[in-house]
Write a structure and sequence with these properties.
Chain lengths: 362, 174
């Protein structure tokens, strides 16, 4: 017998597979954001500020290439350690940190930390962590939901009636919007009560950083002004130890002026089966395969020296699933060529093994 | 409320809603992205609606149903059962637990409009009149979709139980 409750429970279970929207948010935000200053100037300032804040010597920053004379095709390089600045001092029992993420275009604009019930990270399913602390720069407190007090200051809380989800927003500092999202609570708990308690416990965290260990080098023309979101986690089964080899690094790439005209996603650490029709290629000096499709998704795959799989996918928006909006710029109207795909992968910059000691800890 | 504020507050809920309607997290993300891009371009009009979120959810639903129509012309339809006959699924440790949830699987295999009705009734808590308005159809059509969906789920669950007891090599309980 199929009861209403069984159907509701099954639908809730499907909802738990919802993507986290990090890449989606980055793409949307990139379109809306004004270009505040010229890229080169702000890059230097942003990198220096981040360096000072993180206590990192300038020499450890990614080396910059000489900028081309025209049509820069090299994205802004982020600092390699992005301070996350905040942490919750209280979390429900059993939750541990699983993800750290940062978005940047010509400067760092957003950060994200996620906690869940065990140290697993399934990039394929992209399930939401139970508690997310999201931080965004240059934002005011939105007038949504209802007002609440967060440690004496104004905040807002919103929730979905009947859904295990709520969000608490407040300004941690002028222009620095903090959001605690509670998406599901294992095993029990009132999301609103938990969201408020987590939010009210948030304190400055001078130590936490998101280490950016992968970066695009060369990109096709039109990608000089691009927003990127770097995401770091691990792919381990419950109970398995977290090792550096289990790390999963992703970079979502969105041309800020045409998002999501061409969406490039680089993922290292999640395998991908070779599809029928893939061509053998040599990339980064190693054997790999390529699927080049001007009208659909293109993929480059190669195993790195350390054995981890690197996968670059590029999708052309207007023929990808539901996305069919007209593109505002001719320069992004075409797919990347086969040679461009290979050159992008050849020039991806791999950084040192990141510190993963935070994975699985509160 | 600005568009950014709306996205900040409502993106998780929209993605959950779209995932339930589509039963496909990746498609859900695509559809929400497409819809939000259009919403962004005409935010002032959307924000002026009585319930902007309901307006956006309606766009998500319409996008899904129209996407199905567009996609159907290019796809060879294969049911889960037919896929099982063609090739055994590659074991995925991460999905073992989910695969055991028969009801989830059978909901995912329902025709899109039937699944949409279930999602709107049981996940969104809407009544027949509200669902009919969202789907641009009559209430009797909503009730018909719902009763067919429930009948399919009942039959599928009974069939699964029988198959599992019979020891089919494709049974997820093996």
């Amino acid at each position: 017998m199929v009861t209403d409750e069984m159907i509701r429970a099954a639908l809730e279970r499907i909802a738990e597979r919802a993507p986290d929207g990090v890449g989606l948010r980055a793409g949307l935000a990139g379109r809306a954001r004004l270009r505040r200053q010229r890229r080169t100037i702000v890059l230097a300032g942003g990198a220096a500020a981040a360096t000072v804040a993180a206590g990192v010597p300038a020499a450890t920053l990614w080396p910059r290439r000489k900028a081309p004379a025209v049509a820069p095709s090299e994205p802004a390089q982020p600092p390699n350690r992005i301070p996350l600045r905040w942490r919750p001092a209280w979390l429900p029992d059993g939750l541990v940190e699983l993800r750290r993420s940062a978005s940047f275009d010509d400067e760092v604009t957003e950060w994200l930390r996620g906690w869940g019930p065990h140290p697993t990270y399934d990039r394929g399913r992209k399930g939401l962590p139970a508690v997310v602390l999201w931080m965004a720069r240059d934002r005011d407190l939105p007038k949504i939901g209802r007002p609440v007090s967060i440690n004496g200051g104004p905040g807002r809380i919103h929730n979905d009636a009947g859904a295990p989800e709520c969000g608490v927003l407040w300004l941690g500092a002028p222009g620095q919007l903090l959001t605690v999202s509670v998406t599901k609570m294992p095993p029990t708990g009132d999301p609103e009560e938990i969201g408020l308690r987590v939010a009210r416990s948030v304190v400055a965290d001078p130590l936490a950083v998101c280490e950016v260990t992968v970066a695009f080098g060369w990109l096709p023309p039109g990608y000089g002004d691009t927003q990127q979101t770097f995401d770091l986690g691990v792919s381990v089964k419950p109970g398995e130890p977290v090792t550096p080899a289990a790390r999963v690094e992703s970079v979502f790439l969105r041309p800020a002026n045409a998002a999501p005209a061409a969406l490039a996603t680089l993922t290292i650490g999640v395998d991908r089966p070779r599809p029928e029709g893939a061509q053998d290629v040599t990339v980064r000096g190693r054997p790999g395969w390529l699927v080049w499709n001007e009208q659909d998704e293109s993929v480059v795959y190669v195993r790195l020296d350390d054995g981890r799989p690197l996968v670059l996918t590029v999708e052309v928006a207007q023929i990808h699933g539901a996305v069919h909006m007209p593109l505002p710029s001719d320069r992004n109207r075409r797919a990347w060529t086969r040679d461009e795909l290979l050159r992008v992968v050849d020039e991806i910059r791999l950084g040192p093994v990141p510190d993963l000691s935070w994975v699985g800890r509160r | 409320v600005s568009f950014d504020d709306f996205v900040t507050a409502r993106l998780p809920a929209l993605l959950r809603y779209a995932t339930v309607v589509t039963c496909d997290p990746h498609l859900a993300e695509d559809i929400v992205q497409e819809v939000l891009l259009r919403v962004q371009q005409r935010w002032s009009r959307v924000a002026a609606a009585d319930q902007p979120e309901a307006y956006v959810k309606r766009m998500v639903l319409n996008e899904f149903l129209s996407w199905r129509r567009r996609r159907a012309a290019r796809e060879v339809p294969l049911s889960l059962g037919r896929l099982d006959q063609v090739s055994r699924a590659t074991p995925d440790p991460g999905t073992v637990v989910d695969e055991r949830d028969e009801l989830v699987r059978h909901i995912a295999a329902l025709p899109p409009r039937q699944r949409a009705v279930l999602a709107l009734r049981y996940f969104e808590g809407l009544d027949d009149a509200e669902i009919a308005a969202l789907m641009h159809c009559r209430q009797i059509t909503v009730r018909s979709h719902c009763s067919r969906a429930l009948a399919t789920l009942r039959a599928a669950l009974n069939s699964t139980t029988t198959t599992a007891l019979g020891g089919s090599p494709w049974s997820p309980t093996k």
